[in-house]
Amino acid sequence: MNYACFDVDVQSSIAHIRLCRPDKRNSMIPSFWTELPTIVKQLDSNGDVRVIVLSSTGPHFSSGMDLSVFSNGLDSDVVAHQTSTQRAAQFYEIVQRLQHTFTCLEQVRVPVLVAIQGGCIGAGVDLVTAADMRYATRDAYFTIYETNLAMTADVGTFPRISHLMPDGLVRELAYTGRQMPAEEAQSAGLVNAVYDTHEHMLSAVLGIAKQIAAKAPMAIYGCKKMILHARDHSVAETLDYVALWNASFFQKEEIAEAMHATAEQRDGQFASLPAKTDDNADDDIRLP
Questions:
Q1: Which residues contact 103 (CB under 8 A, 6 or more apart)?
Q2: Closest CA to 188 of 169, 205, 203
């Protein structure tokens, strides 16, 4: 399938999703917000994909949200005749739909690795903080740019970045809207590693993805579930949850295969994730 904002390639159980509008600095136009969750859910649906790598093209990762996302929905003749309360309610609904686009990266059963070059601005930060791991080139920088536009970032930055970096630094970035360079982002814990070139970064990230793809998919899925649960719950609640998880999904055959594969210095032969048949009504998201 052809997409306006992305190229998708799947090899050896690794799905590589690329933002493909470098001439527009990969700004997030209305189709971006419907295409990304569609792609992610399709990749997750059959269970064959074990890792997703999300990267970009051109000098910048993303310049953030394109203003057309809101102008398409709020500058119509209908909106012109709405009350301020009705306009606020419509805005609220649009933002919730935008939030869902990035939440899908947390909800997908496999790890999502993001490779970032150049500017990661505004909604770009919302996007990358929803991923499992982040990697950057030395020229990359991050900006909670909404503050500079007299707005409060609302698509996912604050609920997630506050768990990734020290509180004081998050507040500084949010209040000032300044650029945080890649090396500072790495020292603060936002970025796992920094690379000299885009090519070097992609090679390294795809190498990490290959290591993950060689592990038992259900074990990786369980790790992702537990890490997210631990972020949002107490230690006691997460201990109980992981015990229940393993009581349900513990597989002696998978453990035996992992041990034999290690001893024989070969890749393990593990069961794929089960296919998904969930067709929730909110999966088909449409922006105004």
A1: 130, 156
A2: 169
Phi, psi of 133 (to 5 degrees): -140, 155
Residues 164 and 281: their CA atoms lie apart, in Å, by 32
Residue 48: left (phi > 0), alpha (psi -120 to 50), or beta? alpha
Tell me the per-residue pLDDT of 75-131, one tens digit each, with 9 for 90 and over. Answer: 555 666 788 898 888 889 889 999 999 999 999 999 999 999 999 999 999 999 999
Structural domains in the chain, CATH included, are: 6-213 (3.90.226.10), 217-263 (1.10.12.10)
Q: Rounded to two decimals, what is the model's pTM?
A: 0.92
- How far is CA 24 from each of CA 19, 47, 59, 119, 127, rounded to the nearest angstrom? 11, 33, 10, 13, 17
Task: Give the DSSP letter of residue 179.
Answer: E
Per-residue model confidence as pLDDT tens digits over 17-63: 999 999 999 999 999 999 999 999 999 998 999 999 999 999 999 99
In 10 A of CB 131, how many CB atoms? 21
- 193-195: strand order across its sheet: 6-11, 14-19, 51-55, 112-116, 133-137, 193-195
Handedness of CA 178, 186, 182, 226 (dihedral sign): negative
What is the rounded CA–CA span in Å between residue 272 and residue 104? Answer: 20
**Residue 267: C-alpha distances to residues 98, 126, 214, 259, 261 (Å):** 39, 35, 6, 11, 6
Distance CA 66, CA 265 (A): 49
Two tokens at 273?
């994730």
Structure tokens at 128: 């990358």
Closest CA to 283 of 108, 30, 90, 71: 108
Closest CA to 44 of 250, 277, 206, 251: 277
Radius of gyration of the chain from its Cα atoms, rounded to whole angstroms: 20
